[in-house]
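Students often ask why we bother encoding 3D structure as a string. The short answer is that it lets us treat folding as translation between two languages. Here is a chain of 89 residues written in the first language.
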Amino acid sequence: MEQIPTQLHTLFWDVNVASFDPHEYPQYTIGRVLELGDKEAITWMKENFSESQIEDVLKAETRLSPKSATFWAIIFGVSFHEVAALKHE
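And here it is in the second language, the structure alphabet:
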């Protein structure tokens, strides 16, 4: 069973997509889609991961760009002060 649709393989250039199970690595998978995905990738992500999983990634993933983190925080209703990528040390 193909875990990641063929049209999204370019988002995961650094893993073997034939054997990669995105559900075993939700933070990596969701973070990659939030940062680099298009409408089709976002639709796939929302079909495969819960909103709470996506929100958890926003709160934990420091590798999102400030632009992406801000956009997705607004979309998912996560307070900016909870978004890991927007916290300044």
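Translate back mentally: The mean pLDDT is 94. Keep this in mind for the problem set.
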